[in-house]
Specification:
CATH topology of the largest domain: NE0471 N-terminal domain-like
Number of strands: 6
Oligomer: single chain
Helix content: 25-40%
Order of helices and strands: HHHEEEHHEEEH
Number of domains: 2
Mean pLDDT: 79
Structural class: alpha+beta
Strand content: 15-25%
C-alpha cells in the first residue's frame, strides 16, 4: 500500500487512481487510514445573502403597451413581452389609459391609476414563463 497521506497517482488518462486495491475499496476505511489521510478542503460556498447583495435584482425601468402586448424593460437590460389577453383590464382600456402607467415600489411593479390595476414584477416574470 502507498504511504499514508501520499497523493494518489494519476494514470495516463489524467484520472486519479486510489492508493487502495479494488479489494481494499470494498471495505470501510480504518480509523488509522482516516487519520493518516490528508483532509480534502471543501470549496467555499458563498452565503446566499452575500450573493444576493452583490447582484442587484432587476427592476422595471420602462413599459410600453401595444395593441396586443405589454412590453416591460428591466434594469438588467432584458425585455419581457407578454400577451395582453392575460390582463383583461389593460386589454379593454383605451390607448390613453394604457399609456398612463407609473412604476411603483422602486421598480417592483406597475400601476395604472385609471384602471385600478397593478402588476408586480413577480407576476410579469411568472406570466412570461407560462405564455
Amino acid at each position: 500500500m502507498d504511504e499514508p497521506g501520499k497523493m494518489p497517482e494519476s494514470d495516463a488518462g489524467g484520472e486519479v487512481r486510489s492508493p487502495r486495491t479494488p479489494a481494499e475499496e470494498a471495505r470501510p476505511w480504518t480509523q488509522e487510514e482516516m487519520e493518516a489521510a490528508e483532509p480534502c478542503p471543501m470549496p467555499e460556498v458563498p452565503d446566499d445573502e452575500v450573493v444576493a447583495s452583490e447582484v442587484p435584482a432587476p427592476r422595471i425601468s420602462d413599459v410600453r403597451v401595444s395593441h396586443d402586448r405589454i412590453i416591460v424593460d428591466l434594469t438588467d437590460g432584458k425585455t419581457v413581452s407578454l400577451p395582453l389577453r392575460g390582463f383583461p383590464r389593460v386589454l379593454s382600456a383605451t390607448n390613453e389609459q394604457r399609456d398612463r402607467w407609473s412604476v411603483i415600489g422602486d421598480g417592483i411593479g406597475i400601476r395604472w391609476d385609471a384602471l385600478d390595476e397593478e402588476l408586480s414584477l413577480e407576476t410579469i416574470l411568472a406570466h412570461r414563463l407560462t405564455s
